[in-house]
Structures are given as C-alpha cells and as structure tokens.
C-alpha cells in the first residue's frame, strides 16, 4: 500500500527548549499549501522559536513532539535538505554578510536549490522579474548581502530570495517590521502573488498592519509557548482592539 505524502506541514505536540528553558509547550499547528496562516503573539511567546526550529536551528532542543512534511520527519533533516524540499524562512533579523556580493549569493542559492533543473539563463530571467516586482535597481545586486541595508531593504532582500527560490512553504518572521506603508503594500502584493494551490505561508507578526493586506485564512494566538486561541481574520481585529490582555 502506497502512503499518501503529506502536503501540509503537520506540527504535533511540539516541546522545545533552549539553554534549559522551556519555550514551546505542546504546539499543534498545520501549515497548508494554498493558505496563509498567521501566528500572532507578544515578544517572548515563542513565535520566532517555532520558525527557527522548523528551519533547523541546532541551538534549540526538541524534547517532545514531531513535525512531518511530504512523508518525512522534518526534524531529522539538515537545513539544506529542508530548503531543497521547498521550505523557506524570511528572518526577523536578516544576517549581514560583508564582502559577499548579492548577485553571487543569489546565484549560488538558486543553483543549490535547482541544480541541473535550471540554468544560468533561467536565473537571469527569474532574477530580472523578481527585481522588477520589488522595484529594485540593478545597483542593489552590487552590494554586500544586507550590509548597510535599511530595515526595508533587508526585508526586500528576503522577499527577493523567496521569489527566486519559489518555496512550497514560506515562513515570514515579522517581515512587516521596519517597513513604511508603501514597502508594506509592495511586499504584501508579492506574497499574495506567490500564493497558489501548491504554495502556502506561515506569517508571524505582532500587528494587524501586514495582515490587513494579506487577509489570512487562519489566525492563531500564541502565549507563553502555547496556542491559546484560533480563528479567522476577525480575530485579528479583536486583538488589535483589546490587546493580548483580552485573551489572558
């Protein structure tokens, strides 16, 4: 009997700690293709921890639970293997890489994901389209990765990588922080353009501002390492009005 591959990322009863401190305390969540799933919560609630664990950060220890995707135990895979399966993380605080040229960085990442499936001409075409969609000039590619970038430029850099690599599931960790209203609308437009029956998003944020444009299908609230409330988009408006104290 052939087993059906899981199209969604299934997180079950996940417990995670770091340096002896328990951070996630029994998370259950599904990240689905074709859906925008929002995860909201205050600082220190465990949002970014979840994103780092899903991408394979070894600083965190999984003491219980499982994460499955495409018939595989995601927690047993190296970060590069997860990326090749189609998982992508847009960092809350993108790393600066002085001396590493943006163009070369993107080219190497593209080749690592696609291998012989795509060629340099494909990269050039995909890069040109992605740059245009984000209103980025060619000079952007001559700079070192995130070195001296503004907050908005760093977030555009992350979305540029996402558009090039075309992941099946993209995790956006506070992509809205540091963005002015025009950049916010532009990034939301690019995220929505990537949404399809085979592509889904986990959007991690504090605020309503990005979600107002994305209109998530599901909203989950995390407090003290636990998902304490789930609902539809109207939950975002209630949270914006009453704050997290309302749920507590």
Strand and helix layout:
Layout: E1 9-18, E2 21-31, E3 36-40, H1 47-55, E4 61-69, E5 72-73, H2 79-85, E6 87-90, E7 97-101, H3 102-114, H4 120-133, E8 144-145, H5 151-165, E9 169-173, H6 181-194, E10 200-205, H7 211-214, E11 218-223, E12 226-231, H8 234-242
Parallel strand pairs: 3-10, 3-11, 6-9, 9-10
Antiparallel strand pairs: 1-2, 1-4, 4-5, 7-8, 11-12
Overview features:
four-stranded antiparallel β-sheet, alpha/beta, Rossmann fold, 248 residues, disordered N terminus, 8 helices, globular
Overall mean pLDDT score?
Answer: 93
**Radius of gyration, whole Å:** 18 Å
Major β-sheet profile = 6 strands, mixed
Uncertain segments: 1-5
Shape: globular
What features would you describe in this structure?
- With 248 residues, this protein is α/β, with parallel strands linked by helices.
- The protein has a single domain (33-55, 82-246), classed as P-loop containing nucleotide triphosphate hydrolases (Rossmann fold), CATH 3.40.50.300.
- Helices cover 34% and strands 29% of the residues.
- It contains 8 helices and 12 strands.
- The strands form 3 sheets. A 6-stranded mixed β-sheet has the order 6-9-10-3-11-12, with helices on both faces. Strands 2-1-4-5 form a 4-stranded antiparallel β-sheet, with helices on one face. Strands 7-8 form a two-stranded antiparallel sheet.
- Strand 9, helix 6 and strand 10 (200-205) form a beta-alpha-beta unit.
- Helix 5 packs parallel to helix 6 (181-194).
- The protein is globular.
- The N and C termini lie far apart (47 Å).
């Amino acid at each position: 009997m052939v087993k059906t591959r899981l199209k969604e990322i299934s997180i079950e009863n996940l417990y995670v700690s770091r340096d002896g401190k328990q951070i996630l305390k029994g998370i259950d969540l599904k990240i689905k293709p074709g859906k925008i799933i929002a995860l909201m919560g205050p600082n220190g609630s465990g949002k970014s921890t979840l994103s780092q664990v899903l991408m394979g950060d070894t600083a965190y220890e999984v003491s219980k639970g499982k994460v499955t995707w495409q018939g595989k135990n995601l927690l047993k895979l190296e970060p590069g293997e997860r990326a090749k399966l189609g998982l992508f993380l847009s960092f809350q605080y993108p790393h600066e890489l002085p001396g590493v040229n943006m163009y070369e960085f993107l080219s190497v990442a593209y080749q690592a994901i696609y291998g012989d499936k795509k060629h340099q001409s494909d990269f050039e075409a995909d890069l040109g389209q992605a740059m245009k969609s984000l209103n980025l000039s060619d000079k952007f590619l001559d700079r070192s990765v995130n070195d001296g970038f503004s907050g908005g430029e760093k977030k555009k850099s992350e979305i540029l990588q996402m558009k090039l690599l075309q992941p099946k599931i993209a995790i956006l960790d506070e992509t809205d922080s540091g963005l002015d209203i025009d950049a916010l609308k532009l990034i939301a437009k690019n995220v929505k353009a990537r949404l399809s029956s085979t592509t889904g998003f986990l959007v991690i944020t504090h605020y309503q501002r990005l979600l107002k444009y994305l209109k998530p299908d599901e909203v989950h609230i995390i407090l003290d390492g636990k998902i304490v409330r789930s609902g539809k988009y109207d939950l975002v408006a209630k949270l914006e009005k009453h704050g997290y104290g309302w749920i507590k």
